[in-house]
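Shapes recur. Our protein:

. . .
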Amino acid sequence: VQRDLNVAVAEFTELKQQLERDTLVLSVLKKLQEFDTAIKEYNTALLEKKYVAAAQQLEKARGSLKALESRKGFELKILKALGTELTVQTQNMLYHLGEEWQKLAVWKLPPAKESSSLESAMHSELHLRTVPSKEEDVAGPPVASVLQAFAVLGELHSKLKIFGQLLLKYILKPLISYPSLQPFTEEQSDAFILRFKSEEPNLDHSSPMEVFEKIKLIFEVLHQYLLNVPLEQPVEDKKERGVTLAGLLGDMIWEELSDCLIQNCLVNSIPTNSSKLEQYIEVIKSTEEFEKALKNMQFLKGDTTDLLKYARNVNSHFANKKCQDVIVAARNLMTSEIHNTVQITPDSCVALPRLPDPGAGDHLKTQKTSKLLHKDMVNLENETKLSQYTFSLPTCRISSSVEKLMELAYQTLLEATASTDQCCIQLFYSVRNIFQLFYDVVPTYHKENLQKLPQLAAIHHNNCMYIAHHLLTLGHQFRYRLTNILCDGAATFVDLVPGFRRLGMECFLAQMRVQKGEILERLSSARNFSNMDDEENYCAANKAIRQVLHQLKRLGKVWQDVLPVNVYCKAMGTLLNTALSEIVARIAALEDISAEDADRLYSLCRTMVEEGPQVFTPLPEDDRNKKYQEEVPVYVQKWMMFKELMIILQANLQEIVDQWADGKGPLAAEFSAAEVKSLIRALFQNTERRAAALAKIK
């Protein structure tokens, strides 16, 4: 029995294994049959142009093949052949679908060389086929059949991506970029044609409302004739259920389209002044309507997009744009020519609308109080009053660009008073940035001209002083009109004043040093004013004197009517003083001066004294300059010293002693005892009279 039992168990095990093998073979054969059936049905459907059914059969065949390949330890050589067959049939199917797709959506594009111009956009056309060909007997429109088949095969994304890129490049972006371009539709018996026509634009940029209408028309056409196709055919990958082609295309192109709309349309529509901000509500509404229409056509899904956020955030964009425009305008003014000037007088003021009086609310209280106190009031006011021009800028010439720059600053601050808090702060600091930019840009940009041309250095000096003058009160004028955050002392420009004054002075003083250097260089060719009895030496000294006077006269003309009179007189006085000091120093250093030398030196000095004052011509009217020419001793520190030197050159010993007057005379006021003794020794021979005279000089 035991033996029979063992045999029975062995037989049972063998039969069980055989059954498992047979079951496995049957299941494999069943899958092979399913694969074969699917391929046969696919071929039938493809011949009948039932693309969706054909695609589904291919996917069934692919499922069967995957099931066969997943069985471990059961490899059939036939599987490789089946895989190759499936790939071939899939590519065949895609080829047929591609052919159909090319017939359904036909692009007529301009040559590649002309891809980005208005003319090339005019040549772009899109033809959408609307009616199936007669030989086709397909349920539903041909578009749905082809696109759903693509979806089943997983190739829809790549096809739509290419279509979306063409749509953006040749239709949507040109419509946004060129205001004159208008979409134009034409319906034919079997196709719908989308092309462009050109109209004369009213403005450089289209309004957002116009652009949205054009884009909406394009999407309506696409929705109606191409993309209103639900992908609800039974697909193994259930993720694509309930998705429309419009939604897929929207996901692919919306981000790039909205960026283009923002950069080329909404940016240009941001108002340039706060009075137009209220009108911008229309743009926000049209943006909302545009997005709502796209959501209805299922191009868009979800909540507020970047496009609408941008439109709603108009206050911030207005402030940014305004600040950017202000800085650009300011920089253009700074880099324009300095020498185009306008005259500023104490009566001049920046064209600024009158601001309300900050203390207007206190007027009634003070009126009541003043009535009570009027009877007992004692007049404490000083009878002598300051001139109304005491704190005014003196008459001078400044660059017209700087006057415009100051007006820009005032107008921007005025704009800030009517803006939101955030915008007000941004505009205020933009005005500060204007002046900081001036401080950095102008001295660098005009560096060479400011060094070479004395007139430009003078104008730049005036420009800096003019700006500093306005900065003193600029913050105060707007203090109570700006946002509360700025009212607590932050709204000031006073801290910039010393920098601007220093900037103007440094530039002008650098020019003064250049002029001083030229004067000293010219006088260095006068051969130390020694041996004037030598004709050649005298000619050299005379030439040097003439060159210095010519230089001063030229400067006098160049700075005339440009510098304020007091600055002009100080500058010319300083330069003339440099020349006189150098001449005095050279003559005082001579060890021997003959009678003829003294006469010729006197002659040269007389030329300086006679013609020196004539370089003072601060005003264009000659008769008004006489006053300043008579006041030369006020501006030329060494003038009296120079005249005393001339007296010494012509005087005898007794006259020199009289001029000294025991150290109390006019000569003693200008020269030291050592200098006078040195001159006496050079002018007079060594005699007892000279020794007596020298003894009195102490």
